Amino acid sequence: MNVTDMLAQIRGLGDQLRWAATVEPPLLATHSEILYAGMGGSGIAGDYLAPFTAVTSTRVTVHKGYGPVPSWAIRQRPLVVAASYSGNTEETLEYALEAHENGLTVATVTTGGILGELSTARSWPSIRVTPGVQPRAALGLMLGAVIRLLEASNAISDQRFAVIEAADLADAETAEGSESWEQAARIAEGLKGRIPLVYAGGPISMPVAQRWKTQINENAKTPAWWSPLPESNHNELAGWEAMPARTSEILGIVALTDWSDHDRIAARLAHTRALTEDAVPWVGEVASKGVSELARLVSLTVVGDLVSWMLAGSAGVDPVPVTRIEGLKALLAEENK
Which spans in 193-262 are helix H? Predict the structure, then answer.
């Protein structure tokens, strides 16, 4: 894989998932409570976990940021999963160390770095993922590894068939000329020169809407946001009234759907569109494909990844480097000297 080629990294999702299906996870005690700590491209893997535990007694709480470890966690003793692709994410490192100091079991997913060193020094159960891609392009590695950790702790059932289904779907749908490729091209054309807004309203579609937002930020270097339904119907809907001439020129909406969405979400999307089309164009609607939760997550994900890559091309920007993010990290590191 050419790591300077974002399309090649996007197309690596299937192989990443297949790799995860072969990973032998570390030994873990049974846990029904998971506290997941991660940021950015590593953090989104935690957001994707909710559908896997929806019909179980397991609860997953995702933490993004610095500490403290909440008091409920010190009482409940969850498995703390610290995920950092680079192994050097300062927020995740701080959180993992504080969890360890409070006597909680910490398991890690990383390529190495400081988190890898801590895992070795403190005998934390760990899955080491393959290095060499941008963290945002390592979703299959991070999510696949975390799924294996949760399987090992009996928090979820065996997902290997779902992982293979998702991997095959990722390969097919990232191929040029596929249905998802053509859909992504239409959406990217409709969003050209616009700030995207992604709507979603269910356990599958909402974390992927967040992923669309962050991928457009990092790959296309473009502002974007996402909003959940029905919550946005109780506030954001009113925000389309005052400046329709302005918003219709610079914004565009994409909706993500899945069959697991509540029955009322489809009606809310239809009515929201009817009430806002004078103020903002609705560029497209993407419905999930596949049988398993993971495949459906991946099907929505690959369309967004392709859209972000295509928007980068139309904007004339290189999707790989994230100069401002790296600049911020350098400034923070300088302050810590």
Answer: 205-220, 244-250
Q: Which of 161, 191, 173, 159 shows the shortest CA–CA distance to 10? A: 173
Contact between residue 105 and residue 79 where contact means Cβ atoms under 8 Å apart:
yes
Is this model's pTM higher than 0.70 or not? Answer: yes
Does the pLDDT of residue 2 top 70, yes or no? no
**What is the chain's mean pLDDT, rounded?**
96
Tell me how far apart the alpha carbons of residues 263 and 285 are, in angstroms, rounded to a whole number.
17
Name the nearest CA neighbour of 138 among 208, 81, 83: 83
Whether 36 has a pLDDT exceeding 50, the answer reads: yes
Task: List CB contacts of 84: < 8 A, sequence separation 6 or more.
Answer: 38, 39, 42, 92, 93, 108, 109, 110, 113, 115
Please list the residues that pair with 61 across neighbouring strands: 35
Per-position DSSP letters for 115-173, written without gaps between them: HHHHHHHTT--EEEPP-SS-GGG-HHHHHHHHHHHHHHTTSS---HHHHHHHHHHHHHH
Q: What is the dihedral of CA 89, 94, 100, 106, to 10 degrees?
A: -20
CA distance 92 to 167: 28
> What digits encode the pLDDT tens for the residues 159-179?
999 999 999 999 999 999 999
Identify which of 84, 90, 87 has the alpha carbon closest to the alpha carbon of residue 114.
Answer: 87
- For residue 84, give the H/E element and its range: strand 79-84
CATH number of 174-315: 3.40.50.10490
Q: Do domains 6-158 and 174-315 have the same CATH topology?
A: yes
Digit-coded pLDDT (tens) for 253-311: 999 999 999 999 999 999 999 999 999 999 999 999 999 999 999 999 999 999 999 99
Domain locations in the chain as residue ranges? 6-158, 174-315
Distance CA 75, CA 275 (A): 47
Active site residues: 218, 234, 329
CATH number of 6-158: 3.40.50.10490
What are the helix and strand counts (H, E) for the chain? 15, 9
Q: What are phi and psi of 282, to 5 degrees?
A: -95, 110
